[in-house]
Each structure stands twice: as C-alpha cells, then as structure tokens.
Amino acid sequence: MEEPGKRVATRGVTCFSKIKMFLLALTGAYVAKSLSGIYMNSMLTQIERQFNIPTSIVGFINGSFEIGNLLFIIFVSYFGTKLHRPIVIGVGCVVMGLGCFLISLPHFLMGRYEYEKTISPSNNLSSNSFLCSGNRSQTLTPTPDPKECSKEIKSLMWIYVMVGNLIRGIGETPIMPLGISYIEDFAKSENSPLYIAILETGKIVGPLIGLLLASFCTTLYVDIGSVNTDDLTIALTDTRWVGAWWIGFLICAGVNVLTSIPFFFLPKTLPKEGLEDNADVTKSNEKEKHREKAMGKKRGITKDFLPFMKSLFCNPIYVLFTLISVLQINSFIITFTFMPKYLEQQYGKSTAEIIFLIGVYSLPPICIGYLIGGLIMKKFKITVKKAAYIAFCLSLIEYLLFFLNFMWTCDNFPVAGLTTSYEHERIQQPLYVKKNVLAECSKTCNCLTKTWDPVCGDNGLSYMSACLAGCENSDGTGINMVFQNCSCIQSSGSSSAVLGLCNKSPDCTIKLQYFLIVSVFSYFIFSLAVIPGYMVLLRCTKSEEKSLGVGLHTFFIRVFGGIPTPIYFGALIDRTCLHWGTLKCGEPGACRMYDINEYRRIYIGLPAALRGSSYLVSIFILKLLRKFQLPEETDSSETELAEMKLTEKESECMDVPRSPEFENNRELKTKL
User: Which subcellular locations apply to this protein (predicted)?
Assistant: First the structure.
C-alpha cells in the first residue's frame, strides 16, 4: 500500500500536469502570436510610408513571416514530437519576441521621418516661395541625385523589418502543430473540439488587443517626443502620415517572451485526460511505454518520416482538404492583409479609425462563432461526414454574403487634374494624364507637378498642391494654414483652400456602416464553419501522423498562400496607383492615391474567384465521404484502446504494403 504522503504528492503533480494547464499556457501563446501577427498586418501601411516603398515590397516583407515558418515547419512538426514539446514551444515564443524587437530596431537607427511637402510649417517668406508666382524660375524642379536616394531610404533599413518578421515566423513554427498534437494525444476525443475552439478564441483575443494597440499607436506621430507636432502640416487622414509603429512591436516582443515562461515548467507527457486514479495513470503510462517500445523496434527517429509522408499523400481526403485550404487562404490573406489600405482609400477614413472599426466589428463575432462551433461539436458528438457538410454549407452562405461588398462603394477623391477636371462641373477622368495636372489658371505659376501636398478648395475640389490651385498667399501655421487668392478655385466665396484632401460625401460614411454590419454576420457564419472543417482534417489522419499532417498542411499553405499572395496582390495594387510620391532624388516612393474603382474590382473580385473554385473541390470531398461507412457514437475508451492495438500491430507489419483505400477507410471509421 502506498504511503499517504507519497499519494498526496503524486496527486499534486498530477493536478499541475493536467491538460488544462497546458491548454491555458498554449492559449496565452496563441494570444501573443496572433497579437504580433495582426499588429504587423495593421502597420504595413505605416511601414510603406516610413520607408517610401511600393506595396509589392511591403507584400514581400509580410510574406517573409511565411518564409521563416516554411523553413522549419515540417521538421519541427515531425521531430518535435520526439522532443520535449512544451519546451520547444517555449523557445519558439522567445524567438518570436526577438523577431518583434528586431522589427522595431530601424526606428532607433535612422533619423527623423521627413514627409513630402512643398511648404514650410511657419508663415514666412519660405512658405510663400512655394505658392503661385509668375516671376519664379524653374529651379524648383528636384535634380536627380543617386546619393540623395541612398540617403533618403536610410540604406535599405526596411530589410531589418523583413529579417525580423522572418525570425518571428521561425519562432511561431512549433506553436500550432506541437500544441495541437499535444492536446490530441492527452485530451479526451470528445473534448478535443472544445479545446481547439478555445485556442481559436485565443487567436481572436490576440488580434482584438493588437488592433486596439495599432489604432492607438497610429494616432501618435512616428517621431513623438523628438518633434513638435504643432509644426506638422499633415493630419491623421493624410496618406503621408506615419504613426508610432515601433512602439507596438516593443510591446509585442515583451508579451511573447512572458508567455514562454510556463512552457519550461510543463512535463513532456501527461496522463490521458479522465484517468485520475494513480492506478489508471500507471496503467496509461505502461501502455504508452509499450506503444513507444513497439514503434521503436523497426523505426528510428527518421525511418518512419517517408512512410508517413507517403501515407498522407495517398490520403485523398487529406490532399483535397489541403488544396481547399490553399485556395481559401489565398482569398483570406488578400482580404485581411490589405483591408485597412482598402477601407482608407474607399471611404476616406484615417488608419487609426479603420483599424479600430475592424477590431470592434469583426473580432467579437468570430470569437463567439468559434466557441459556439466547438460547443456544438462536443454537445452533439458530430461525425466526420456531418462536420464536413456543416462546414460546406455555412462557408457557402458566408461566401454569398461576400458579394454584397460590391454594393457599398464610393468614388475616387475629387482631385483636380487627377480624377476630375479643373472645371467646376467635376468631369470624371478614368485615368491620370500628366498634361492635365497643369491648367490655364496655374500654368504661369511654375509649380512642381510631382510633389504631393494636397489642399482642399472652397469649391469642394482637391488640388495636388497649393501652387497648382493657383494660391498666391497663405495665413496661419502648421495644419491650420489657409491659402488665399487661389485662381483655380471657382467659388462664390473667398477662393481659399486648406491643407489636406477634401472629405468624401456623407453617403460614404453610411456605406461604411453597411459594410461593417454585413461583415459582422459574415464573420460569425464563417467562424461557425472553422471548427467542423478543421476536425475533418484532424480525423482523416492517423494518430501517429497527426502532428506531421498538421505541419505539412501548414507547409503548403505557406508555400502556395502565405508567401506569394501578398507579393503578387501588392503588385496588382501598385498597378492601380494614380500618383506616386516623389523622393528627393526624383525617384518614385510610396503611392499617395489609388484608382479606387479598379482597386475595388481587384480586391473583391480576385478573392471571390479563388473561393469559388475551392467549393468545386469541396464537392469531391463530400462525395468521397459518402463511400465510407462512418461508425455511430461509441465509448471513447474503446476507441482509444482499439487505436492503440492497431498501432502496435502496424509496428510489426511496417514492411507489408497496404492499399491507400484500406488505410483511409480504417481511419475515417474513427469517432469524432
């Protein structure tokens, strides 16, 4: 008989080592990684403006995370199961923190941000020198100088951001595959969907915090504390505004390191959930040792890697599900990565306001949908086939709602010589024509035609600069500067202008609300489908292949979705640019204004085409599932015991070839 003290000590260790303790720590890691991920996506526009780079390069920076993840995902997923999984996850969290710190480093290495402008912040002679004057010579045109370009881009400082994001991707690699496999190994099969739903909820709580943090940081000027913000001639809605993006990355670095701490105190293995008695724990450990011994007779640490790979590729359900995931992920990356930029250009709002609205309207319904989806799977013990049909129907409904986004649209900003004519009637021009920038009213002003420093006239039209509006003098300082006697502004008032683009019509604000309301329903319906769909992936693979299967699934998503999508879509966005910013050396910098009609067709049309093709593949999965006889609900312990015996038998017959149909049929006859 055991001594009482020894029994109490054993129970204390067992209590600490329960799967729920690991679930709590893993949820914290999910919150931290999703916090830094969504913050990175929200700051892409700020990074683009800070380093004066096109959207295609920004897409490459964003894709570097997937490259880092790709370098290690398969090997970590496979070899990680042989190692101490909690410690490997903890090390990954620390590496993510280091990556976030490296991303913020350029701010401390480069000088102050200098935005493109034609006027000085004070009302003096230098400011008047940039207004309309017929006596000025053409010396205002910038002289191309390669040294100026090299100096302005700070020796390609954006490479630090790219490398930091790549390191962040490396650190994120072990969290999902090793965490999911750890839960699948030691949790009850009927509790697994709920636990995964809790993890997915953590992936929503993190972005919610991240979006709020991003919204706050973008309201702060990038060089806060080192410049006088009263002298700024740009507002939050200006496309030259850069928020304090580096502050959030420092916070993300600290959060990721803190969440790593619990993993270093968690055990390598746990007793199967529900086996609370010491006798049951001992019995479970003996079975686990016997299982590892049986598998180790003919398999080393690498001998079963290729057989596992072959088995997964011969699994038609797994292969088709991976193809669907690649198509869907391409669509979602386009939608979420470039949503802040799209909504800014579409509805004329500031980055801070857009990011805040995205967080408030999108993340709570997704969080609720994940939890409800997991509870439904647990409550009704839904089988694999039913889960596939539920995921298909819900996703299709959400897809149809997506097309409503074509209705909530606005026109381009009315900029004279760019999107409209100089005449008061505002005749729309589909494309930018350089010769239209100068009108009769400003031809004698000798203005810079490429510099972007817009003003809004009393007539409701915007002009690329005060000089191009024909303004002869100014009054006031900073953002409150007013330009007067503007010859190109035809109005019954004083023919004056103020800094910044004119606001879009009030109808745009109403349409933005419609867009967000539809998004609430779309995100909720989509999140309901995520857990059933993900369980199809988990249940169509063997238990010993589960970690590698999840890792390989993520690998293909990275290769064909995460890496190329932001790059090629960023290049497509660049093609819709109407006016590029200009560096001091005369080279183009970041885009200042897009053709929103063309942008909208690409932003909504391309994801719709990708998702539409994925539903054709989904039909094949539903037809394949019909061919298999799925069992009714059985006792979980019997299922686990049968699976263990089958694994022991496989270790003895490893060299005997079997058909893929037999393997898939056996695995699909496992209770969800």
Answer: Cell membrane
Beta bridge partners of 420: 416, 428
Are 188 and 14 within 8 A, CB to CB?
Answer: no
Task: Please check whether residue 520 is in contact with residue 361, taking contact to mean a CB–CB distance below 8 angstroms.
Answer: yes
Assigned domain for 336 exists? no
Tell me: pLDDT of 299 over 50: no
User: φ, ψ for residue 592 (rounded to 5)?
Assistant: -100, -25
- Each residue's pLDDT tens digit, 558-588: 889 888 999 999 999 999 998 888 776 667 7
* pLDDT tens, residue by residue, 22-41: 888 899 999 999 999 999 99
Amino acid type, 3? E
> CA 268 → CA 19, 89, 186, 254, 263, distances in Å?
12, 12, 11, 26, 10
Residue range 605-633: average pLDDT?
78
Whether the predicted pLDDT of 265 surpasses 80: yes
**Alpha helices, H only, 4-84:** 4-16, 19-42, 44-51, 55-79
**Residues of the chain with pLDDT > 90: what percent?**
22
Q: Rounded distance, CA 452 to CA 459, Å?
A: 20
Same structural domain for residues 129 and 143? Answer: yes
The residue among 273 and 203 whose pLDDT is bigger is 203
246 and 165 within one domain: yes
Q: Are residues 181 and 248 in the same domain?
A: yes
User: Residue 633 pLDDT more than 80?
Assistant: no
- Residue 435 DSSP class: G
Domain, as residue range, for 425: 116-151+412-503
The pTM for the full model equals 0.76
Q: Helix, strand or coil for residue 454?
A: coil
Which residue has better confidence, 258 or 288?
258
627's tokens:
């061919």
The Cα–Cα gap between 164 and 102 comes to 5
Provide the token pair at 143.
Answer: 């002289």
Determine, yes or no, domain membership for 203: yes
What is the DSSP code string of 553-611? HHHHHIIIIITHHHHHHHHHHHTTEEEEEE-TTS-EEEEEEE-HHHHHHHHHHHHHHHH
Q: How far apart are CA 393 and CA 615, in angstroms?
A: 10
